[in-house]
Amino acid sequence: MPKMKSNKSVAARFKLTGSGQLKRNRPGKRHKLSKKSSQQKRNLSKQPLVDQGQVGMYKRMMFV
After folding, report:
1. What percent of the chain has pLDDT over 90?
2. Number of structural domains, the chain?
3. Is residue 58 part of a domain?
4. pTM > 0.85
5. Which residues contact 37 (CB under 8 A, 6 or more apart)?
6. How far is 40 from 19, CA to CA, in rounded Å?
7. Does some domain include residue 3?
8. In the structure, what pLDDT confidence band is assigned to residue 49 with cuts at 50, 70 and 90?
9. Does a structural domain hold residue 17?
10. Which family does it belong to (predicted)?
11. Are 9 and 38 in contact (CB under 8 A)?
12. What are phi and psi of 38, to 5 degrees?
């Protein structure tokens, strides 16, 4: 039986923390940044944690 493959799109979008939670990036920080204020761009840089209800699904997709 071949190896199980992780979902590459999920593996690229989320990072696993040491406590087992997942960090994600906020959308809106790639282009068209000249319209956005410095405060808005700074807040977009913060990486929130994924909601607890969805963590299990994403971990199964990553085979963690």
Report:
1. 94
2. 1
3. yes
4. no
5. none
6. 28
7. no
8. very high
9. yes
10. Belongs to the bacterial ribosomal protein bL35 family.
11. no
12. -60, -40
Phi, psi of 43 (to 5 degrees): -70, -30
Residue numbers of the domain that contains 43: 8-28+37-62
Integer Cα distance of 10 and 56 in angstroms: 12
Q: Name the one residue in this structure whose structure tokens are 């990553």.
A: 62
In a domain, 19, yes or no: yes
**Residue position matching structure tokens 């190896």:** 3
Q: Are 24 and 46 in contact (CB under 8 A)?
A: no
Q: DSSP class of residue 33? A: -
Q: How confident is the model at residue 64 (pLDDT cuts 50, 70, 90)?
A: confident
CA 25 to chain CA mean position, Å: 5
Label residue 57 left, alpha or beta by phi (over 0 means left) and psi (-120 to 50 means alpha): alpha
The helix or strand, by DSSP H or E, that contains position 59, with its residue range, turns out to be helix 52-62
